[in-house]
Write a structure and sequence with these properties.
Blueprint: E1 9-11, E2 14-16, H1 19-29, H2 37-56
Length: about 70
């Protein structure tokens, strides 16, 4: 298991880690990257933004505030 982390996708007997790389690979393979380069870029923006939020641990983002 690469990096001793999940998820792992096995392709032709070779394990591949890193969820964004796996997601992009599967999106390209199954034609889920949009109709054109612009759509593909927007998909990348959304994935990268989620990664940024995860890395920031939501410290700088306040979705809602309670009492």
């Amino acid at each position: 298991m690469p990096y001793k982390m999940l998820p792992v996708l096995e392709i032709d007997g070779k394990p591949v880690a890193q969820s964004n790389a796996v997601a992009r690979y599967l999106a390209k393979k199954y034609d889920l990257m949009g109709r054109n380069e612009w759509d593909a870029m927007i998909c990348d923006v959304l994935v990268d933004t989620l990664g940024d939020l995860k890395q920031d641990d939501m410290g700088g983002l306040r979705v809602c505030s309670g009492p």
